[in-house]
Amino acid sequence: MKHILIIDDDVAIGDMLTEALTLEGYRVSRAYSGTEALLALPQARPDLVLLDLMLPGLAGEQVLPQIRGIPVIVVSAKVDVQDKVDLLLGGAVDYVTKPFEIRELLARIAVRLRQAPAPDAARFTFGPLELDADTRVASVRGAEARLTRTECAILKLLMLNPTQVITKSTILDRISLDTPDCTESSLKMHVSNLRKKLRELDGNDYIEAVWGIGFKLRAPE
Known about the structure:
The chain is of the alpha/beta class. Helix content is 40%, strand content 22%. The strands form 3 sheets. It has a 5-stranded parallel beta sheet with strand order 2-1-3-4-5, with helices on both faces. A 4-stranded antiparallel beta sheet has the order 6-7-8-9.
């Protein structure tokens, strides 16, 4: 079942889209602000995003560049041609003007989902934080940090489970194939080094230590 994330603070439009998409067999998630959307994206992992522009918090124009590897259809009341051109050149795959005909929008969604490439299994996101597991590079808005193999494996595991506390024993077990050199005694050092590198990207501490249990991702402030 394909999953669509609606980013729109208009409850009535969101309800109408949710009903129509559900009837078409899609799974639907919703976010009501730009900030909420960036926090929801890593957990939702949608196949397509419907993005309004006039959002509380971060505007749609600010959210769009931070959505990577997912087709985005902008659904907005803005009708200026230059707005459409800028957004299409900025990464949107389509632009639909409000008010819209639901049948047309459903057709555009179906076309884009057929054209969408398979998700890149080597790239992961959590809010503004991105990880390219192939190159072992973590980045936030263009600032980059090169990670060791062990640091990359730890961050990848945490990003695959963004809402969970991962125990130390689970981390050691899950990353053992990638990093057999990581031991219980060295894990704390690897996590400490990783936290320092990520903190230097934008000042946020993305990894939270849960005393006596393990570690989890922390949403940026």
